[in-house]
Each structure stands twice: as C-alpha cells, then as structure tokens.
Design a protein that fits this description.
By secondary structure, this protein is mostly helical. It is built from seven helices and no strands. Bound molecules: heme C.
C-alpha cells in the first residue's frame, strides 16, 4: 500500500514537473524563432546607430519603410516574406548607405530587436545567424 502511494506521489510530481517544463519552454516554439533579451537590448542600440535615421527610432518609418506594425508590408505582409527573407535582404542591402557593413552579431541582434517589435517574445535561447537566415517563420507574430 505504502509503495503504491509513493509511486503515485512520484508520478504526480513528475507530471507536475513536466507541466512546468512545458509552460516555461520557448514561448515562440512552433514558430522556430528564438531570441534573447540581451540580443534585443544590444540590437536596439545597433539599430539606433545604423538604421533609425531612415527607419525611425520606433521603427515607424521615414526615408525607409516602417519595420513594425500594420505598415511593415513592402517585403513582409504583401509578399508573405519570412524572417529568413527579411534577414537575408537586410544583411546584404542594409544600411542602404553602407550595405553589408555590420558584423554578423550586429545583424542578428538587430533582427532580434525588430522581431521583438513585431510580437516575438525573448526567451532563454538566443537567435543565431543561420537560424535567422533559414527561418520560415512569419516576420510578424500575431
Ligand atoms: C540611408 C537610409 C537607410 C538606412 C540607414 C537603412 N535603411 Fe533599410 N531601407 C531603406 C530604404 C529606402 C528601403 C526600401 C528599399 C526598397 O524598397 O528598395 C529600406 C528597406 C529595408 C528593409 C525592407 C523592408 C520592407 O518591408 O521592404 C529592411 C528589413 C531594412 N531596410 C532594414 C534596415 C536595417 C536593419 C538597417 C540598419 C542596419 C537599415 N535598414 C538602414 C533605407 C535605409
């Protein structure tokens, strides 16, 4: 009887743990996009230095198109561009006045920042250059 009870308690504890593990897993899971809070914060600085002059400090657009919100659609919603499409475009064409001039880490951080402004939440796993390039996730997360 006691053995059975402790087995039951163990199973119960294990399933509870499994539940917690599930809940705290990558909040963007299923979208194939992970980004860390550290990347978002360094990306925000790199964006301010290299992109905000044309795309606006809040990604609202200016000389360049908006990179968040309903009007982020030149490449994105209009043609259903993926994270990979946008990332590959911006790493070879942006900043417009100095294309491909940033480091891989800077581009990845900027991408994380842009994603964070388009509905993606930071988690414990960071975005990588190759994951960003290959991602088929939508650029805006509903
Ligand atoms: C000198 C101005 C300028 C700077 C600086 C600049 N951009 Fe752009 N960007 C543009 C213009 C103009 C376009 C539209 C190009 C086109 O449609 O051919 C554009 C387009 C884009 C697009 C495609 C958006 C869409 O939906 O079509 C992305 C993404 C982008 N820029 C990211 C960046 C990033 C990231 C940086 C900083 C690393 C940056 N840009 C810096 C002017 C700029």
């Amino acid at each position: 009887m006691n053995d059975r009870r402790s087995t039951f308690a163990l199973v119960a504890a294990a399933s509870l743990l499994a539940c917690f593990a599930f809940v705290s897993r990558d909040v963007n899971a299923g979208n194939g996009v992970s980004l860390s809070a550290a990347q978002v914060s360094s990306g925000s600085k790199a964006f301010a230095q290299n992109c905000a002059s044309c795309h606006g400090a809040a990604l609202e657009g200016g000389a360049g198109p908006p990179l968040s919100g309903a009007n982020f659609k030149t490449l994105s919603s209009k043609v259903h561009a993926t994270v990979g499409d946008i990332f590959s475009y911006m790493t070879s064409n942006m900043p417009m006045n100095a294309p491909a001039s940033l480091t891989h880490d800077q581009y990845v951080a900027i991408m994380a920042f842009i994603l964070s402004k388009n509905g993606y939440q930071p988690s414990s796993s960071a975005l990588t250059y190759s994951a960003a390039m290959q991602s088929k996730a939508p650029i805006q997360r509903k």
